[in-house]
Design goal:
It is a single chain. The radius of gyration is 24 Å and the shape is globular. The chain folds into three domains: 95 residues, Udp-n-acetylmuramoylalanyl-d-glutamate--2,6- Diaminopimelate Ligase, Chain: A, domain 1; 219 residues, Mur-like, catalytic domain (UDP-N-acetylmuramoyl-L-alanine:D-glutamate ligase); 150 residues, Alpha-Beta Complex (Protein-Tyrosine Phosphatase, Chain A), CATH 3.90.190.20. α8 links the parallel β10 and β11. The strands form five sheets. A nine-stranded mixed beta sheet has the order 6-9-5-10-11-12-13-14-15, with helices on both faces. The chain has a six-stranded mixed beta sheet with strand order 16-17-21-18-19-20, with helices on both faces. The longest helix has 16 residues. The chain is of the alpha/beta class.
């Protein structure tokens, strides 16, 4: 692709000598530059791409694009983006280079604090069950053309988003379901993408280490609605507080006026059932996953599927066979007479919801093991401590991903939210806390291990070590004499 075509839609003026350069690829990491690439320098939070211009040129970059004039290079291949926003520029040139693949796919973007992953995977299950090969991008991994790709973040950078979606098209995918984080919206990772359906699950406190206020957090989420295709629609969940009132949006929840109205909810250890009123009529729905929140996730997925042309009856039927998402109320079943479930709940709202559902289905006690991540929103720590003590019968406070913070200090902040009348069990070592909780559980109990879900690592300092809550729970159950089938 010629450079002048790559930069279509930008305000960058090129000299005649650069306009017709053939461009082989794009990089924003100088270590990934190859001959004939364009290097887009971005001022990051911990490093600055402008510090690596010479490295990019030495690696063969034909052109480097900066956010401001630079004086430490004499190369004529340096082009300045006068807007100063190379994140937005990266999204635009990535779209040009990969030929806007979202226009060749049925696309769904899902945002919200909680429920994105489950909703996305239920929707993919429904679409695949209807013969629509579907790619996905999200927290537990990406899939393009049936090939799994590990995920380091929920929504990749704009270059990877465009590349993955082009791979989906090439590999025969007809649809793409994408989890869209607030970080992605704030940092222009999807600013060039266009969606047939945008879906909002809910909003609650999270990422206030990144967003200055809850208002800013919500407004950032709402940016997704501006990315609809001309014929695109927005779907909004109304089942949780502070949902945005979007004109002409399709809604799902328990209100009489919701487009997709949920009623007659029943939850149990073996799954849940509900009645869903749709524009095509009422349907009795059953899902295998326990917990009321999974009903909302299923309803949102069904609504999105219908907008993509699946009949409501087929969508409801397919949702009923969905096996579940790793780390989302995921059972660890070794034949024990109590429920052990691992869940990704790491926000106050998510923890409250999963514990309330645990209390509904528990025949005896509700036990929880949880901690809070380091280098993240510290304000939610005492809130989560209070929630755990108010809902659970037995609380184990432990370490999560402490990162560069002192785990003991994080735990102490959690404990400030727990009243003196409640005595939590504090065990900083997460493996030991899980073992203690499993050993304490008895018939009819529900034990929820919250915070890490599908993650198979723990971040100590800046190092990732292998750690999987599910493995630890199985080990503890095996230690009690149960036989665990993987």
């Amino acid at each position: 692709m010629k450079l002048k075509h790559l930069l279509e839609g930008t305000q960058i003026q090129l000299s005649p000598g650069l306009s017709d350069l053939e461009i082989n690829g794009i990089a924003y990491d100088s270590r990934k530059v190859m001959p004939g690439f364009v290097f887009v320098a971005i001022t990051g939070f911990s490093s600055d791409g402008h510090d690596y211009l010479e490295r990019a040129l030495a690696a063969g970059a034909s052109v480097v694009i900066t956010e401001h004039p630079v004086s430490d290079t004499t190369s004529s291949s340096v082009v300045v983006n006068s807007s100063g926003n190379n994140r937005s520029l990266l999204a635009l040139v990535s779209a040009n280079f990969y030929r806007t693949p979202w226009n060749e796919l049925a696309t769904v973007g899902i945002t919200g604090t909680n429920g994105k992953t489950s909703t996305a995977h239920i929707l993919r299950w429904i679409l695949e069950g209807s013969g629509i090969q579907t790619g996905i991008m999200g927290t537990v991994g990406h899939i393009a053309g049936g090939k799994s790709i590990p995920a380091s973040v929920t929504t990749p950078d704009s270059l990877e988003v465009a590349a993955y979606m082009r791979e989906m098209v090439v590999s025969g995918d007809k649809a793409c379901v994408m989890e869209v984080s607030s970080h992605a919206l704030a940092l222009d990772r999807v600013s060039s993408v266009r969606f047939d359906v945008t879906l909002f699950t809910n909003i609650s406190q999270d990422h206030l280490d990144f967003h200055p206020t809850m208002k800013d957090y919500l407004n950032t989420k709402k940016k997704l609605f501006s990315l609809n295709k001309n014929s695109g629609v927005t779907i909004v969940g109304t089942y949780a507080p502070d949902w945005p009132d979007v004109p002409e949006a399709i809604t799902f929840g328990e209100r009489q006026e919701d487009t997709y109205r949920i009623s007659e909810i029943k939850v149990g250890l073996s799954g849940s059932s509900f009645v869903l009123r749709t524009p095509e009529g009422e349907f009795c729905a059953k899902i295998k996953a326990p917990g009321r929140f999974n009903i909302y996730n299923a309803a949102g997925a069904i609504a999105a599927a219908v907008q993509l042309g699946i009949s409501a009856s087929d969508a409801v039927r397919a949702a009923g066979s969905f096996p579940g998402v790793p780390g989302r109320m995921e059972r660890v079943d070794c034949g024990q007479e109590f429920l052990v479930a691992v869940d990704y709940a790491h926000t106050p709202d998510a923890l409250e919801r999963v514990l309330k559902q645990g209390s509904v289905i528990a025949e005896n006690r509700l036990i929880v093991v949880f901690g809070c991540g380091g280098d993240r929103d510290s304000g939610k720590r005492p809130i989560m401590g209070r929630i755990a003590a108010e809902i659970a019968d037995t609380v184990f406070v432990t370490s999560d991903n402490p990162r560069t913070e002192d785990p003991h200090s994080i735990i102490q902040e959690i404990l400030t939210g727990i009243g003196a009348e409640f005595s939590p069990i504090v065990k900083e070592n997460r493996a030991e806390a899980i073992t203690m909780a499993v050993n304490a559980a008895s018939a009819g109990d529900v034990l929820i291990i919250a915070g890490k879900g599908h993650e198979d690592y723990q971040i100590l300092g800046t190092e990732k070590i292998h750690f999987d809550d599910r493995e630890q729970a199985r080990n503890a159950l095996t230690g009690r004499g149960y036989r665990c089938a993987l």
